[in-house]
């Protein structure tokens, strides 16, 4: 990564047409006009690589595996690709290249990807540390508590999903699948995401709000073990 960054620097200032991440990082200056230090550019560039590549590669691999395990799903995916001229067939050995606009036309494939990511989120757990004492519902989390946001549990909990263990891409075609009702206090920009995202945003948002709210007795003292905290959150969702 350092070598790559050095190579980019050796090319000199990026041209205005250069829309690469490295070029954007090189254009960033602080108020005094100083560029982002090399170490910071390196760390930002690295995070894009590992946050972007592993996640995407694993999600794609699981998605292909899920398709391979469900012949009915595979048949529908193939049919959709064929209808859009994106499938190699004996009559069309060289299909056209996929275009950006195709992403919104591949309705069923989108559902398959969402369903695969629901069942096998590559980041199944996220963690936050309470920077202050924080109240969430009836629970008090002392400053320093590690709060686990259990994405996998939320994505497969029977409270939120019908037949959570089944691979059912068509559930994403239901009208309320894309526009789940946000929890009170959820930021409006989270309302147009899928259910899992809305719930996650809700939890994070509650944490943020509660840190500025008065913490009054009597409150249950939450254990600060990660699993306990997760299920406390389920109780109040
Ligand atoms: C299927 C693909 C992806 C999944 C499932 C995914 C998932 C996530 C999740 C859950 C987080 C939040 C982590 C947290 O707050 O604890 C995150 C953060 C992030 N993602 Fe992705 N992501 C994907 C693709 C990408 C791509 C393609 C890029 C960039 C090229 C990217 C860049 C980032 C960055 C920069 C962060 C913030 C990291 C930080 O806060 O330090 N992700 N991603």
From TrEMBL:
<comment type="similarity">
    <text>Belongs to the cytochrome P450 family.</text>
</comment>
<protein>
    <recommendedName>
        <fullName>Cytochrome P450</fullName>
    </recommendedName>
</protein>
<dbReference type="InterPro" id="IPR002401">
    <property type="entry name" value="Cyt_P450_E_grp-I"/>
</dbReference>
<dbReference type="InterPro" id="IPR050121">
    <property type="entry name" value="Cytochrome_P450_monoxygenase"/>
</dbReference>
<dbReference type="InterPro" id="IPR001128">
    <property type="entry name" value="Cyt_P450"/>
</dbReference>
<dbReference type="InterPro" id="IPR036396">
    <property type="entry name" value="Cyt_P450_sf"/>
</dbReference>
<dbReference type="Pfam" id="PF00067">
    <property type="entry name" value="p450"/>
</dbReference>
């Amino acid at each position: 990564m350092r070598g790559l960054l050095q190579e980019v620097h050796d090319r000199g200032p990026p041209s205005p047409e250069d829309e690469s991440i490295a070029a954007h990082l090189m254009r960033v200056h602080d108020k005094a006009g100083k560029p982002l230090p090399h170490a910071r550019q390196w760390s930002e560039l690295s995070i894009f690589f590992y946050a972007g590549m592993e996640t995407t590669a694993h999600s794609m691999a699981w998605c292909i595996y899920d398709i391979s395990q469900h012949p009915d799903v595979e048949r529908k995916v193939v049919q959709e690709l064929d209808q859009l001229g994106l499938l190699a067939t004996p009559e069309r050995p060289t299909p056209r290249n996929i275009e950006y606009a195709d992403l919104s036309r591949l309705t069923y494939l989108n559902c398959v990807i969402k369903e695969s990511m629901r069942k096998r989120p590559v980041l199944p757990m996220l963690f936050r540390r309470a920077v202050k004492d924080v109240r969430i519902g009836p629970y008090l989390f002392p400053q320093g508590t590690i709060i686990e946001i259990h994405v996998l549990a939320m994505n497969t909990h029977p409270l939120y999903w019908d037949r959570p263990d089944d691979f059912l891409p068509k559930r994403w075609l239901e009208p309320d699948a894309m526009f789940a009702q946000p929890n009170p206090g959820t930021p409006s920009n989270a309302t147009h995401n899928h259910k899992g995202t809305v719930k996650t945003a809700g939890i994070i948002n509650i944490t943020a709000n509660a840190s500025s709210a008065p913490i009054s007795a009597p409150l249950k003292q939450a254990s600060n073990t990660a699993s306990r905290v997760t299920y406390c959150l389920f109780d109040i969702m």
